[in-house]
Amino acid sequence: MPAAESYPDDLRYHPEHDWARVDGDEATLGITWFAQDSLGELVHYEAPEAGSTVTKDSSYGEVESVKAVSDIVAPLSGEVLEANAKVVGAPETVNDDPYGEGWLIRIRMSDSSELDALMDADAYRTHVAES
Predict the structure, then answer these.
(1) Percent of the chain with pLDDT strictly greater than 90
(2) What three-state secondary structure class fits 123?
(3) d(C-alpha 42, C-alpha 67), whole Å
(4) Where does the chain have alpha helices with state H?
(5) Are 76 and 100 in contact (CB under 8 A)?
(6) DSSP secondary structure code for residue 124 in this structure
(7) With the C-alpha atoms ordered 121, 125, 18, 75, is the resulting torsion angle positive or negative?
(8) CA distance 53 to 9
(9) Are the C-beta atoms of residues 61 and 45 closer than 8 Å to each other?
């Protein structure tokens, strides 16, 4: 069952429809409800390797849906600590729970000042409404 539209207040959002949940110097990243809804049912997730680095505003992997293949854009820079193996094996998890079990990667942030460029939930809701 697809998740209901939501944009949790505890997350920060990138204009390319990616989110970050920050805890100290680590962040969990994923795609928003809007992104997974636009893509449709996900059928493949190409994850980065642990130990690799991601760069803010650059692609770090891709998701494939029944409609299209899309790059995933990093909202923050850092070292990949873990990719979500559950999503690699069952990409539709993102459709069911994009902010919970459907997270994509965990990173150790290399520049916490990048958080300042991300939107809060209210700004992101406005961004989506204007899309």
Answers:
(1) 94
(2) helix
(3) 9
(4) 33-39, 85-89, 93-96, 121-130
(5) no
(6) H
(7) negative
(8) 27
(9) yes
Provide the token pair at 37: 């809804």
67 compared with 22, residue with greater pLDDT: 22
**pTM attached to this predicted model:** 0.96
Domains contained in the chain, CATH given: 12-130 (2.40.50.100)
Q: What is the DSSP letter of 29?
A: E
CB 59 within 8 A of CB 71: yes
Say whether pLDDT at 2 is over 90.
no
Tally of CA atoms within 13 A in the half-sphere of 77 that contains its CB? 11
Residues composing the chain: 131
Determine the Cα angle at 20 with ends 49 and 65, to 5°: 65
The Cα 21–Cα 112 span in angstroms is 12
Pairing of strands 42-46, 26-31: unpaired
* Per-residue confidence (pLDDT) for residue 106, from 0 to 100: 98
